[in-house]
Write a structure and sequence with these properties.
The complex is a heterodimer of chains A (500) and B (347). Chain A is an alpha+beta fold and 500 residues long. Helices cover 29% and strands 22% of the residues of chain A. Chain A has 15 helices and 22 strands. In chain A, helix 3 crosses helix 13. Chain A is globular. By secondary structure, chain B is mainly alpha-helical. Classes of the chains: A alpha+beta (500), B mainly alpha (347). At the A-B interface, helix 2, helix 9, strand 7, strand 8 and strand 9 of A face helix 1, helix 5 and helix 6 of B.
Amino acid sequence: MTAPAHSPSPPEARPGELPSVLHGYAPAGFFDEMFQPDGTLRPHYQKFVARFGSIPRPELDAKRQAVDALFLRQGITFNVYGDTQGTERIFPFDLLPRVIPAAEWEKLEAGLVQRITALNLFLHDIYHEQRILKDGVIPPYFVLSARHFRREFVNFQVPGDIYIHVCGTDLIRGADGGYLVLEDNARCPSGASYLLENRRAMRRTFPGFFEGTGVRPVDNYPAELLAVLQHVAPAGVAEPTVALLTPGPYNSAYFEHTYLARQMGIEIVEGRDLVVRDQRVFMRTTKGERPVHVIYRRIDDDFLDPTVFRADSALGVPGLIRAYRAGNVSLANSVGTGVADDKAMYYFVPRMIKYYLDQEPLIPNVPTYLASEDQDRAYILEHLDELVVKAANEAGGYGMLMGPQATAAERESFRARIIAEPRNYIAQPMVALSRHPTFIEETGRCEGRHVDLRPYILYGQKTTVVPGGLTRVALRRGSLVVNSSQGGGSKDTWVLYADE
Amino acid sequence: MLSRVANSLYWMSRYLERADNTARLVDVNLQLFLDFRSLDDRALADRWIPIVQSAGDETLFNTLHGRASGRTVTEFLVFQPENHNSILAAVTQARENARMVRDQITIEVWEELNRLYLFLRSPQARQQLDSSPVEFFHEIKASSLYLQGLTNATVVRNEGWLFQQAGMYLERADKTSRILDVRHTVFPAHGAPAPVNQAGALEWAAVLRSCSAWDAYKSMHGADVQPALVAEYLLLSPEFPRSVRFCVQALNATLRGISGSASDRFANDAERLSGRLLAQLQFTTAAEIFGTGLHAYIDELQARLNAIGEALFQAYIFQPFLTPDNGQLQQQEEQQQQRRTAAAVRR
């Protein structure tokens, strides 16, 4: 390899030396993904850092700008709500990838498969025999009072007996580096397209890095997803038509919907493109109406069918649920999976694993207190300033109290809400999320920022986990919130074939 | 193909074609009037107003700007957000339509369209228009040509492609006729437009240039610019790819590609109307058109193009919402009525 003609400067770092953007970097007491507590590189990062360090600084800056420009040009943006000028922003993307060694990933993969298997068994059970409730493992009250428990679907046989086809499970690492499950997203988890695009951007930016580093590819996700969707097609349909149902172009995940539909080669439809006749679903095409057999729906249960759920839903399709119940169309994920990612139900997932699989959970939960249990509630109310309180039925970081950072008034308001509606609240200790070196524009060097990891699990004929997942990073100094709406960015996630 | 998707593809290419034509129209006339330094403001305004009429909404222009000048007309036709036909508005709508069908267009097409949109919204675009309008318009025209090339080179020849072609040719036929109509103030009510002097020839050459027809015209008729020949060329040439006849021919073939009907049959009103218009353009002479009156002829032509667009919408996009429930309801209501009538008879 020859050095680029325009950069006469020699490589910045010699082997064994850190590149200048990492000079002065300190783990500062947190678990750091890249560095050991004594400041030496973890073995699985060595190959990456050696290559990364050989890129001269001006070239690195140029690469960073090029990658931002690429995302902008591709229109991988989200709309800033309330901005009439139509301003669009890109999701900040950090060039330093998170690296996971093979052995570590193997354990995670087994843990995630264990978890989705138990959750699917649980959903089958509570919508049929309800053995787990009758055996007293989970108090029936928690299931029957869950907002997303669809009693209309008790004793309904979902296609292929699969409830959760696609699951996005959020993982974090605490101070000791152990992985914990933060929550299960069993309804319509989003973000998979960013995982794929991040990889594409990295391959474009550092073409030489992948060959020698041994990074497992992720590109198979759309094909695997399509296989899962085809697997659950109604019986007797030889060549099922699969469609992705989107809320429409003004939804913040619309980019992802079109991206996945294009990658899978399926139609992307809005509610108004579909019509139900004789309990069969059709899409309106230029050649008349054409049947649809499987719908990968990216809208919530509540909006699916205005004649069954929310009557004011303009996004749904009247009659869709009747067609679903008649077995003429399959939905992924199935209706009623929301009960499994209810945050109070999360508390019971380890018990589900024990009950259905007779195994110990491979990835533990974050310690959780249920406000509806007298002892726990007393503890929560006493320690509001230390705990994170979450509303059981909300997603996306809404309805949350970060005890240590909240004002006294916010804590009092949560206190009142917890007392009034204990079923709807859980609390967890603040977890000091692991950090990862992340390039910070203002200082021109890398600083530690908190990260989480959302792997995607597909459950069909077989269960597959895409190697890696979406690593989200809280870009604000000290912030623990990784959501993109609140200053979050993302990184590529590399699962290695080997351990270093 | 989903009707909604077909509609978006159709409008995406219509809006792109619109932006492209507006760019050429403004560009050519800005350059033309540089040669007309001797004209006072009033005479210049008289020349700019037909351009506003051909590419946009004159009433809206008068409300927003009042007096027509190179600066105000350029602003109105390039950036004005209130003008739904301004270049920026047209590109924005093309992109918005493309966004809704991201899965149906190729990555190359999307990225270029997105780049054009981002350029037009950037401060550099306005700077460039001020400092070097020729380059600014070149940028837009080049992008439009690039997009057409990409579409040709990367898009699968399926129904979606046909809807894009239909939108493009319909818009192009309409725009060519409008650009010709810019000179309508000098058209006689009946008969051929009179030969012109040297200054007049420049203005007619500008019409040709606005349609990228200058070289094509010259190879046919030489450098002698005669209004009657220009009109004939832009309306009736069977070879020039932007003439009205050529566009209608392509449109007609495209429509038949969508339905598969033979050239002497029609499966819907869009095909019937386009077939009839094509025959009329094929078997008419310039003398006949001048007999009708050029301006009147162009007016009617535009109405007929609009009718084709409307019929296309009715045939493929708009499907009356008739759920079985509605049908049932109607049936039940009718039965009720019959019973009541029967009861009345019995009584």
